[in-house]
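Hypothesis: this fold can be encoded by more than one sequence.
Test: take the structure tokens below, design a sequence, compare later.
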């Protein structure tokens, strides 16, 4: 936030308002004072003139009514003497005395002696003599360019008749000069007072704005997440109470921010370490947040997708058009698989609403369901295979039993063959059910294991001896077992079942005159068993699948030989239960080799159950 300049600050506004109020007060006081001063001075001036006129009128009236002898001065001389004795203290003051015919009998002006004896045309004098009424008024004299006060007073004789008039004309410029001087003094005082008041206003405004400025700076600090500082409280007035409330707000915000920050860290930690991916968007569907798990799943940088549309990020153009309809769909399976790697994710959508139930955004949780989908597919395939494997013998048995029911049981040649096939198919289903039960127990970890210390070389010789006693004439069994003793911690019955499954398959798939070889290779910590046949072999792309349940490289031949398709799957489970590994090597037309390992005593081994 930019710093507020002085000319835009509240401090200047306080100063301007303070000075304007002061100027207004000075103007009101000055106007009132000037008007009263002017009234008082002009009133005093007029009273002074009127008193002089009154005194002159009395003396002049006595001069008019006095009886004169030849030795006495004339009326004009006496009037002139009376006028000249008056001290006007103002050179601009003019005194004229008129008789009742408006002739000038005397004047105090030396340059106006020539006017004595002349009649005047002054309207004020005329009205005074005519109406026997004094005239008093100020006016502006254009000849002298000054303000003048005129007082015309009638002179009354003994009989009450007007015998003349006196005109007293005095300049008022001295009065107004005095008023102007006083106004100048008042103006200078006002300017001085305003200047001092402006300085005081700055100080006063600073005392008001300083706490506000500190609050502003504190607010800026708080906006950056720093709640450690406190405002200084200068008093208990409203600003002090505001500062105290601000400090209380700071403390509450500090606590709230700490709580929010803790929750944010918890949420960030949860989002960072959770296995599911989380994508947050605004109400328009633009991505605002993506955790690392989601980024790894969809193979994008979280920073690069901010602001991108969720539909584009999850490649939902063909499934969803409107982002607002996503939550209604619950969840969507999205296939991100390529030619080499299968990858399927499940996206679950939810809506974020505010207090007014308005949508403010969307939360999408994505999870990797590739393995789950694979397991589901394997389960479906397993059910399908079990159904198929059971349906074939059941269909055969049903057809033979129906034939027997229709009378074939009476045919001594056909009936035994039909019963023999039915019994074989029944035995095959029993073996299949037993194998399924055994696999089920292995899957649920309920198959008992009775492990014991076993000398492995002698044990293998015993197993192979048993096979040589019932060896088909067309098959040759060759053993390549090193001398010496090696001990293995194992369940003899379960490993015997492993050998049975593998060697039996080798016998089944070996051609007439073929050879089955059993080799043992003792390494440092393991013994490697390899069983080779000279059968038709298995294609390279199917080697990893032969240990899957119900998988057959040659379905028709395997079913003809009575196989259930579960032997190698059981073999793999048993070998891995002994902490070993099993795999196959084969070339089409050149036979197949099944290899498995078992740990020797002293290396990692399982515990008996």
């Amino acid at each position: 936030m930019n710093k507020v300049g002085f000319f835009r600050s509240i401090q200047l506004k306080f100063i301007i308002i303070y000075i304007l109020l002061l100027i207004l007060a000075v103007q009101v006081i000055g106007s009132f004072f000037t008007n009263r001063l002017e009234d008082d001075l002009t009133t005093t001036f007029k009273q002074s003139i009127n008193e002089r006129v009154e005194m002159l009128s009395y003396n002049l009236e006595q001069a008019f009514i006095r009886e004169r002898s030849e030795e006495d001065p004339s009326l004009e001389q006496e009037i002139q003497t009376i006028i000249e004795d008056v001290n006007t203290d103002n050179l601009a003051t003019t005194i004229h005395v008129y008789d009742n015919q408006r002739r000038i009998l005397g004047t105090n002006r030396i340059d106006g002696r020539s006017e004595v004896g002349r009649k005047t045309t002054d309207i004020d004098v005329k009205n005074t003599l005519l109406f026997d009424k004094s005239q008093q008024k100020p006016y502006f004299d254009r000849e002298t360019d000054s303000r003048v006060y005129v007082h015309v007073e009638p002179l009354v004789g003994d009989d009450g008749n007007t015998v003349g008039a006196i005109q007293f004309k005095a300049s008022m410029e001295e009065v107004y000069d005095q008023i102007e001087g006083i106004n100048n003094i008042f103006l200078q005082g006002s300017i001085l007072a305003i200047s001092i008041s402006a300085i005081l206003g700055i100080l006063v405004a600073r005392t008001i704005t300083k706490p506000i400025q500190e609050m502003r700076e504190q607010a800026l600090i708080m906006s950056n997440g720093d709640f450690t500082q406190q405002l200084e409280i200068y008093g208990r007035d409203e600003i002090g109470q505001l500062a105290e409330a601000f400090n209380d707000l700071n403390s509450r915000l500090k606590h709230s921010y700490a709580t929010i920050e803790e929750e944010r860290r918890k949420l960030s930690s949860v989002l960072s370490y959770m296995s599911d991916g989380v994508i947050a968007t605004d109400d328009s569907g633009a991505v605002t947040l993506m955790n690392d798990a989601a980024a790894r799943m969809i193979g994008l940088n979280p920073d690069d997708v901010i602001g991108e549309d969720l539909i584009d990020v999850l490649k939902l153009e063909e499934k969803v058009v409107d982002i607002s309809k996503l939550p209604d769909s619950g969840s969507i399976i999205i296939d991100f698989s390529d030619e080499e790697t299968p990858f399927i994710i499940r996206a679950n959508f939810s809506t974020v609403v505010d207090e007014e139930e308005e949508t403010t955004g969307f939360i999408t949780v994505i999870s990797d369901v590739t393995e789950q989908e694979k397991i589901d597919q394997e389960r479906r395939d397993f059910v399908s295979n079990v159904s198929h494997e059971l349906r074939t013998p059941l269909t055969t048995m049903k057809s033979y039993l129906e034939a027997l029911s229709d009378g074939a049981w009476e045919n001594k040649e056909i009936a035994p063959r039909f019963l023999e096939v039915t019994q074989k198919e029944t035995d095959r289903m029993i073996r299949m059910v037993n194998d399924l039960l055994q696999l089920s127990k292995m899957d649920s970890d309920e198959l008992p294991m009775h492990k014991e210390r076993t000398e492995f070389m002698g044990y293998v010789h015993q197993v192979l001896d048993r096979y040589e006693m019932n060896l088909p004439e067309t098959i040759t069994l060759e053993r390549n077992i090193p001398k010496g003793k090696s001990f293995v911690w194992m369940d003899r019955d379960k490993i015997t079942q492993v050998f049975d499954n593998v060697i039996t398959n080798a016998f089944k798939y070996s051609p007439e005159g073929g050879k089955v070889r059993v080799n043992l290779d003792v390494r440092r910590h393991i013994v490697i068993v390899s069983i080779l046949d000279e059968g038709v072999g298995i294609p390279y792309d199917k080697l990893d699948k032969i240990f899957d349940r119900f998988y057959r490289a040659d379905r028709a031949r395997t079913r003809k030989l009575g196989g259930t398709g579960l032997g190698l799957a059981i073999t793999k489970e048993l070998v891995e239960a002994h902490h070993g590994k099993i795999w196959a090597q084969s070339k089409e037309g050149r036979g197949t080799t099944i290899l498995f390992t078992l740990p020797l005593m002293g290396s990692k081994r399982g515990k008996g159950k």
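Residues 381 and 415 are 36 Å apart (CA to CA). The longest helix spans residues 10-65.
Hypothesis status: open.
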